[in-house]
Amino acid sequence: MAENRQPKRYPQNLGGVLQLAVDAGSAAEGPSPIEPMSEERKLWLKGALAEVCKGQMDEVEQIKKCLEVLKHERDAENERGEEERGEEDEDERESIFDILSELCENLDNARDLMTLGGLDLSISQYLCHSRSGLRWRAAHLIASCAQNMPQVQIHLLKLGALPKLLQLTDSDPNPTVRVKALYAVSCLVREQEEGLKEFLSNDGYSVLMRGMQSDNEKLRTKSAFLLLNLLMAEPEQKDTVVSMGMVQQLVSVLRTPHSPVHEHVLGALCCLVEECPKGLKDCSTPALGLEELLKQRFKELKGKEESEEELEFCERLRGLCFHGPQADDNGMDR
């Protein structure tokens, strides 16, 4: 009877969870006589539990050892006299960052790295390092730790990470550094109110605009993608973005040779004209030539399965701006 059931008691620690799993496995095999656990079984369980705990502790110790290497500063004499050794040291540090990035895919490890001062070190010493391989790896580590971790995001914002990352995105001479820095920016501002406020105060949209005009294809695409996502998540920013001349800049990007960035640009333009009179006016200005550009783009992409979403944006944008009819088999005009 239901009234005779005893309330469930849930395990309070890892050992209890392990015991619960063992009990559940036994229950699945059918009723068996209740017998006290043998000493051999107790020793096995104790060893298994120790291995689980040891694995986690090993990772924390590994993080500590990595940070010891990153904190190590060669004295001035060594820097002057052992140039080859200095190159080896920097190779080692790059490997250390790779290890930390892999470890910090685990959220607990990311939190431990923050507590141990690893993020502070990455910002203060390595985002501005002379070696590009260390700069981009530091940015990548910051992104890995910040992603989906509000506690880490707030910590990084308090450390002043965002302005430094925006500067790297905007002007670093190394293309990989710029892309990784933008990845870290994205992890600090998407669905993060404080991060978005700081992004705005540091003219982040202008950084994205310049990123879309870059010769670096990855940076162009990722800048447009972040712009699209921010406009979708924060529609109240549309007027601010339009007032910067973003519509004109986006259309100029559409006039470049076709590339993956165009899909995100068209999506961003759709966002900027929906429920935004100023954006609609800018897009509809005859001098911009957007209507003819959309017609031409539609003809180029029609029938290409991989371009379906871009085609949808073309039709949607034309309908919003020019009240055009739906496309037929011959193109966008009936």
Automatic annotation (TrEMBL):
Keyword ATP-binding assigned: no
Domain of life (superkingdom): Eukaryota
Bias (Basic and acidic residues) ranges: 74-83
Keyword Repeat set for record: yes
Bias (Acidic residues) ranges: 84-93
Record-linked Pfam families: Arm (PF00514), Fes1 (PF08609)
Cross-referenced InterPro entries: ARM-like (IPR011989), ARM-type_fold (IPR016024), Armadillo (IPR000225), Hsp70_NEF-Inhibitors (IPR050693), Nucleotide_exch_fac_Fes1 (IPR013918)
Subunit structure: Interacts with the ATP-binding domain of HSPA1A. Detected in a ternary complex containing STUB1, HSPA1A and HSPBP1. Interacts with PGLYRP1; this interaction blocks the cytotoxic activity of the PGLYRP1-HSPA1A complex.
Protein name (Swiss-Prot/TrEMBL): Hsp70-binding protein 1
Species of origin: Champsocephalus esox
Lineage: Eukaryota, Metazoa, Chordata, Craniata, Vertebrata
